Each structure stands twice: as structure tokens, then as C-alpha cells.
Amino acid sequence: MTAFDLLLPATCSGCGVAGTACCVTCLDGFGPPARLQVPGVGPPVWTLAAYHGTARELVLAFKERGARALAAWFGALVAVALVAVGPPPWTLIPAPSRRSAARDRGGDHMLRIARETDIATVAPVLRLAPGVADSVGLTAIARRRNLAGRVEVCGPAPPGTTVLLDDVITTGATASACVRALRQAGVRTNAVLVLTSARPHRPGQ
Hints:
Elements: H1 3-7, H2 24-27, E1 34-36, E2 45-47, H3 53-64, H4 70-85, E3 90-94, H5 99-104, H6 109-114, E4 121-122, E5 126-128, H7 140-147, E6 151-153, E7 161-169, H8 173-184, E8 191-197
Parallel strand pairs: 2-8, 3-4, 3-7, 7-8
Antiparallel strand pairs: 1-2, 5-6
């Protein structure tokens, strides 16, 4: 946070209301973990919201528009959700970003959220090899080809309920590639938890 930030009143990144980085109404767009059917991923996949409306705006504000204060809000949501997806102790493995994207965002955005959960061990052991393209606009097949063999495991993961953490799931290509890379490195992924899902689901299912 800069001195300039301190001079400006906080506004909700979801709806623009003054006084807070995320108002209660927009926060209510996220609920308890809902189970998703994502072929090819393997472990259970859970989401906290559908990728539309204010939930989408909050994710984009944090990811692309520098609303870093939202990390604490998302971290609190993830901490509550972990209780539902498996028993403690929990190990969070953030899904990796392309290195150029992480530089543009001032760091890995999912790692920032994971570190705000407080109740889980964070293991940033995944990285993307050079040559991975931005997935926006790619078909499901193109997304899988884009990541094939390019997710690397760069260290051990502590024992516990291992949860892969990401912001959005669309085709499942990223989750599948991460789970596969971890499995090849001897790490079992117990669950995948995403903030939002572009896939159809019914809250509470």
C-alpha cells in the first residue's frame, strides 16, 4: 500500500460503494464450496461462486486491476472453505501464473491469497515453463496443448490435505495439468478449490 492509497477512500471493487474494498453484498456472492463435475481433473473440484456478476468483477479487480486489498478477503473465504473440502492440516498449492503475467501484477496473485489464509501451510511448488501462452480465447483442446508438459514441480509439498488453489476454472486444463505434474512428482492432490467457476453448477450441490 502506498501513501497515495491512504489518501483515497476505499471503494468496493465489485459495485463501487464507498468505505470498503469489498462490501457485504458483494461478498455474499461467494458461498460455501459447491462441487463441480470437471472431467479429466481427478480429485474433487470445489468452487465458491459462479464467474459472473460481482464475483467476476472482484476476481478481475484483484487479478488485473491491482486491487490487492482483496487478497485478505479472498484468503478468509478460502480459509472457511478448507474446512469443508478436507481435514486439517491443510497444504495449499497455488496454481502458477506465467512469469510475465506475475511481473505485470506485482507478484503471483494466487500465492498472495494463499498466504492470507493463516490456517494452512502454503507450498508454492508449481511453476510454468517458458512458452506457455495466455489461455484467454483458447479452445479446450488448445488449452490442454498449451500446458502439456509445461507445468513443473520445483520442490516438495508438506504432508496434509493437499489443495490446489486457483481463481477461475473453465475447461479444467490448468487444474488437470497441475494435478498431473504433482502426481508425477509423488504428490497426491486431495482437492481443487477455485474462487469462481465458468462451468455450470448449482450452489450448495
